[in-house]
């Protein structure tokens, strides 16, 4: 059913396009970029399914040939036939060549995905890309006819330049590829400036897609400044997209690998350790760039994606160091000797440093997510049917933060570092205060005023401890939430909470003398104890006072009656 509905839609789309492509002056026209973008988005490329899009191109080609009467022989024999300028009487002839190019291009992109595991398919990939470029050149040649309008000619030139650029890009002919991409970019920019803003949006999007390819070619030619532009492109949502995104990541890793050759050691908390593992060198070298990229992120989605990328890279690096620890027997012996002397080995200390980076990144990521949820929690709920954020969601985030801080305090090599342990303890108090605050908020939602008030008092206790201990650690609080704002918020919540019991008797006036004193008491806290029914306990004591009746007459008397009693019992007289 889904395939049938999709084919019906395919039948309608070409008719709509054919109607809108005929120019007013009678010349032939074709919205090349608009057609391929709509087709790609509706038939698989939104999810990167190139095989589905290739099947769509094949079906559309068959329908076009049937409609135009453009037969390629019969069922018994194939006879090749090309669209020529003389045959060009309908814009569907141009569409036919365009679909042939798109089919070859989509097959090449499908093979590119499969070539990651089957390298031999790369040869087939290059053949299909060359085939697509050949069809593009044929389309450009057909558009040179005087029957075709100027806009279609320019779009055909840009499309052909793009396909030629893709071929040269895969062949790593960077200079030729950059020239082709620049030609394509220039044509689309000219077209965008010649039309209204609504019509120019599609051309601008195409220019943004081509820009990473141009900068990548420039870098490979020798422009060292291009790497900075490529890293900035990675920050944008989708940064280059699909295959280009993978090439950007590979390029950045390759650049860091070259720089890591001169990196031999790292210093952390007053101790310098050598870094001999290449993966660890590359990660530590790019750590500052990754952190700067997170700070410069424009939105929470991009920031979350960068955090996940950093954590994945950090986990891989930790795994590489852990494997080195397992395989190096001599290192284990030195670690045992170091443990006796109170100092861990260099490799173990490096492992602790990388683990610290991972755990602290988890803390920062969850704090960023909590900050976004706090902002949403304060916004008024417009749709009642839609589930909004709740205090319980924040409690879960702060639980993960506290768990990470607990693991930080137990890192090997830092047990005797009292300054580090005090810093972790101070950060733990801050996040405990926030966690306790949102637990109180969850109790407020279910109108448990007493429990919430007790938790608010505990929040103030944590914040007072933080303020008293933070005097000697001025730099430790720069990355933490401001507890002063939390104190102000808790004070406001306490006042509203203390007034909450008054809502039960708003209709009844009652003058309480204690309210007129200098220290009015709105609510009795803590509340008085109230008697409640207890579960009764049962003990079986009656058995000790029960007098059982004698059973002597029921017990059989042995040794009496002799042979007479035997016969009497045999015939039933004695019963």
From TrEMBL:
**Key word RNA-binding present:** yes
In the record, the note on similarity to other proteins reads: Belongs to the SRP68 family.
State the Gene3D superfamilies in the record: Signal recognition particle, SRP68 subunit, RNA-binding domain
Subcellular location(s) per record:
Cytoplasm; Endoplasmic reticulum; Nucleus, Nucleolus
Query: What does this gene product do?
Result: Component of the signal recognition particle (SRP) complex, a ribonucleoprotein complex that mediates the cotranslational targeting of secretory and membrane proteins to the endoplasmic reticulum (ER). The SRP complex interacts with the signal sequence in nascent secretory and membrane proteins and directs them to the membrane of the ER.
Taken from the record, one Pfam family name reads: SRP68
What keywords sit in the KW lines? Answer: Cytoplasm, Endoplasmic reticulum, Nucleus, Ribonucleoprotein, RNA-binding, Signal recognition particle
Gene Ontology molecular function: any one: endoplasmic reticulum signal peptide binding
Q: Name one GO biological process term.
A: SRP-dependent cotranslational protein targeting to membrane
Looking up PANTHER family in the UniProt record yields:
SIGNAL RECOGNITION PARTICLE 68 KDA PROTEIN, SIGNAL RECOGNITION PARTICLE SUBUNIT SRP68
Q: What is this protein called?
A: Signal recognition particle subunit SRP68
One GO term describing the cellular component? endoplasmic reticulum
The lineage, from the top, is: Eukaryota, Metazoa, Chordata, Craniata, Vertebrata
